[in-house]
UniProtKB/TrEMBL annotation:
Belongs to the CutC family. One of its GO terms (cellular component) is cytoplasm. Keywords: Cytoplasm. It comes from Chryseobacterium taklimakanense. This is PF03932 family protein CutC. It is found in: Cytoplasm. Its main location: cytoplasm. Signal peptide: none annotated. HAMAP family: CutC (MF_00795). One of its GO terms (molecular function) is copper ion binding.
Length: 219
């Protein structure tokens, strides 16, 4: 399964027309992705049939939020749910970078039967095994991770361990610098089956149809 992270509508349309299985739609790549524009999302849903997962994140920076910001997250999730979101991507941590089980559970319950992915806030947690057990208990269907390192290649041993131990209980979505030049190595080493990439070639700003096809062919 290949998911393409799309930070603006041009890349989203490229990925939705290409061979990607689904996209993660968000905004502001320089902030690591935040909640996208709902009108752009509605347009994409009106034109394309492939699944669109929506990031719910009110700001960049850390992954702990004020009460007001959490209320915004709940409101945004419900609006995108009503508009046809196929999945949600979010992650809330406590100040010590442990999983905020209560607030994440509130959002998962609001999503109801729409699958939720915990994003790379996971990689900031101090103990990946403890964190992933919490995510499974909360009801997340997937976790996007580079194995606790800055890139999937650096974290490939941790990724292999996570997939071996927990892959039957939660989808381990391998992400973080995943490109056509390394995806085969990552797949063979980690035994992963779910991959996440922006598919943006070096020195470019938009996802590339050619890169998406190379990524898909390699898995």
């Amino acid at each position: 399964m290949l998911e393409i992270a799309c930070f603006e509508i041009t890349s989203a349309e490229t990925a939705l027309r290409s061979v990607a299985d689904r996209i993660e739609f968000c905004a502001e790549q320089q902030l690591g992705g935040i909640t996208p524009n709902i009108d752009e999302f509605r347009y994409l849903k009106s034109v394309y049939r492939k699944p669109i997962y929506v990031m719910i994140r009110p700001k960049g920076g850390g992954f702990y939020y004020s009460d007001l910001e959490f209320e915004v997250m709940k409101k945004d999730l419900l609006q995108f749910k009503k508009s046809g979101a196929d999945g949600f991507v979010f992650g809330i941590l406590n100040s010590g970078n442990t999983i905020d089980t209560h607030r994440n559970k509130v959002l998962v319950d609001l999503a109801d039967d729409i699958p939720c992915t915990f994003h790379r806030a996971f990689d900031r947690t101090p103990d990946l095994d403890v964190a992933i057990k919490h995510l499974i208990d909360i009801g997340f269907k997937a976790v996007l991770t580079s194995g606790g390192k800055s890139s999937a290649m650096e974290g490939k041993e941790n990724l292999r361990n996570l997939i071996e131990k927990y892959g039957s209980q939660i989808d381990i979505l391998v992400g973080g610098g995943v490109r056509s030049g390394n995806i085969s190595e990552l797949k063979n080493f980690t035994k992963g089956t779910h991959f996440h990439s922006s598919a943006i070639p070096s020195y470019e700003v938009f996802a590339s149809d050619e890169e998406i096809k190379k990524l898909k062919k390699s898995i």
